[in-house]
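Help! Submission page says 'invalid entity' but I think these are all valid:
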Amino acid sequence: MNAIRVRGLRKAYKDHQAVAGVDLDVARGEVFAVLGPNGAGKTTSVEILEGHRDRDGGEVSVLGVDPAKAGREWRSKLGIVLQSATDAATLTVREAVHHYAKYYGDPRDPEEVIDLVGLTEKAKSRAGTLSGGQRRRLDVALGIIGRPELVFLDEPTTGFDPEARRQFWGLIKLLAAEGTTILLTTHYLDEAEALADRVAVLAGGRIVAEGTPQTLGGRAHADATVRWMSDRGYQEIRTSEPTKAIADLSRHGELAELTVTRPSLEDVYLELIK
Amino acid sequence: MTTPVLSEAATSKTAALPSTLSLGLSRGATELREFFRQKENLIFTISLPALLMLLLGTVYVKEVAAAQMFAASMIGAGIISTSFVGLGMSVVADREDGTLKRLRGTPMPFASYFLGKIILVFVSSLFEAVLLLAVGVLRFDLELPTSAEKWLTFAWVFTLGVVACSLIGVALSAIAKSTRNAAGVLNLPYIVLQFLSGVFIMQSALPESLRTVGSFFPLKWVCQGFRSVFALNDDYAVMEAAGSWELGKIALVLGAWTIVGLVLVGRTFRWSNTSR
């Protein structure tokens, strides 16, 4: 059984169709990234899966249960990492993690979780005094304290500096290695490429492409761009046979600054969301 | 795709979830901890009624009998301030800062959240009442009731008042989108009701129509209950609108508001500003 199964999901706000027929399958133990520009319907879709939002139509099954009808037992198997919470500001990191641990039947050890997210040195600091990156790590701690089978991360690293993002990625990889299923939304392509087993691109409320980061949008088979420097400046050709093209070109002499590139994930993505 | 490993994260749950009551107590402890760490709560919510009593009392109260009545009414007003206004505000703040959204994603039942809030209001109201009585005793020679019967009345009026007004505060918090406009939504009825319910002006001094309006709302009945507790003797009941303490009616009205509050909370409560 898949961790998440979605068929024909629809949701409209007034006259705006935010989600217009989304199909999605996420296997157990998989790290799945949903990419898309702002307003593509990412957050709406995820909130429906989390049970935070009603849907207009479609079938949704999360851990075998319809989120609209789910109860406490189901929620105890989920970990939801919030995007922009500033709650519990006057509690210390330790107090907050210990408190949330009490909600679950079989929580992780709070001290271990604090250590896992790298907040041991900040355990006695109040949540309101943490930096942006530290605060998000506390959110992760509160999201995973209940030993969830499925974790939702909605744009987790927005506003992080590069170092904080790398640390955060390490944390997610650790969770994935433990067998936790992870659904992640992001608009950073390098993040999807670094973390996800599979990605889907959401645009205008629909999934426009789905695959591994390496093959998304036919990326692996796309034409390569061969680029070199001649007397007249940079030259560029697009070809499906770059090796042959270079062999032909090099007969006329040395090719300065020769490069062969496939479209980056970013190129593919920008093409898809047009 | 990674191979799913059957590790501690993926094993199915068998452990039972904690009970609603124990979670409610735990919520209450955390709510209190957060409340007392915010200085503005200590200054405005806890101390304001005592401060008002000190100021207004110094100007108007010339005799012990009046101090008794005034202190009783101020305790009543204080309860409304912590429950109706304070709790309403704190629910709006919980919605704004993500507390409610986070709780919604955990297996904690809503009843536990509300139980925690009631504990918060109960304890903070008690602190407020004790401070107010201390000011009364030290500054205005307030006499505390000595009979167990009076304290019993105090206990049930206090409890019923806290529960009823907390429910209405939570229900009204659904109207307010942010803590900024919540202050208006909640304070306006509170201030108006203080004038209509015999806190600042004796009810017998009000025109009939205003008195009738006031008697629809809990504040009048809570204050009347406390006046019955703190009056020097029961002869002072003649100063009430009905000429008696009407304890049975107090229980009835507050009980009715508790039920109305429960229904309203059930129908209007929102976990976030954007859901649905």
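Support: the input was valid. A stray whitespace character was the problem, and the output above is from the cleaned input. Residues 81-146 of chain A form one domain.
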